[in-house]
Amino acid sequence: MATIGTGAITAExxxxxxxxxxxxxxxxxxxxxxxxxxxxxxxxxPDVPVYDDLDKMLADPSIDLxxxxxxxxLHFAQxxxxxxxxxxxxxxxxxxxxxxxxxVIARLLNARPQQFYFEAARHIYTPNFSKLQRAIGGKTVTGxxxxxxxxxxxxxxxxxxxxxxxxxxxFAGGALQDLGVYLVYAxxxxxxxxxxxxxxxxxxxxxxxxGGIGTLxxxxxxxxxxxxxxxxxxxxxxxxLGKDTVWTDNIAELTQVGYYHGSSAAxxxxxxxxxxxxxxxxxxxxxxxxxxxxxxxxxxxxQLSARVNEVLYALxxxxxxxxxxxxxxxxxxx
Length: 334
Known about the structure:
The chain has 334 residues and is an alpha/beta fold. It has a domain at 119-334: Dihydrodipicolinate Reductase, domain 2 (2-Layer Sandwich). Helices cover 37% and strands 21% of the residues. It is built from 11 helices and 14 strands. The chain has helices at residues 8-19, 33-42, 54-58, 75-84, 99-111, 127-136, 155-159, 175-191, 280-292, 295-319, 325-328, and strands at residues 2-4, 27-29, 50-51, 65-68, 88-92, 117-120, 143-149, 196-203, 209-217, 222-228, 237-241, 244-248, 257-260, 267-269. The longest helix has 25 residues, at 295-319. The two termini are 24 Å apart. One of its GO terms (molecular function) is nucleotide binding.
């Protein structure tokens, strides 16, 4: 497989690949060859080919899968290019900015039934997320609060008057598109698709949201979302089951999962040890689906990705969060 992007998340993915006996890195892409070579060396891959021409990398027959971890605004075009090259693709969340882009990818996959696409939403593949699901399963949900507020390492630059990529409309940035993806994925994986979605953002001078409060409306309950990149919060996430509460310390990491019975201060510990590398579980699952040609599991993951894309777009539209036309564009399938 190969990677696109040279950020910290790509380094983490490479570490997961090294842990998995079924996978290995056969190429890396960076727009800057020198930067790509340095990145390869830093990550223990000095002999792996580094490309600064995406088409050349995609023409390499030894590469069968590509991990896309470029800025958000580049995900669609690069995912499309990978599929057109006949390779599987894992695209970092959020994969695409709107349902029109997602529809193009769906048509490409329909025409290429031997290929797979996955959106990298690592938290929902972890053992503790499965335990959270089982704790809720079969019970009557009466509400939930899902929070992920983490002070961004790039927010100080915003305060200083700069516009880093993660806080730029040109790169499809902002809290909802970043941390909010974890919350929407968790909500839809746990409760299904909502009947309505609303978002009230805290806008920054860069033109994106630094944080906000979202609501997902279900027939008999409401899920509150709190993504934020301008504060460091330690508020847990909770799912309400009438008098009982299922909670996790962090919905994106799920280090701890517990079940409170009524008003008791004591709780049952549900969570166990999580993998040291948060991407290990999703990579193992994606690899398993590809190797077994498990079309049913693929269809389930694809539908979840589609629903997340639709709900994220609905939240952004409700808030009036706009990206440039070039970012929103969805060219026809070649």
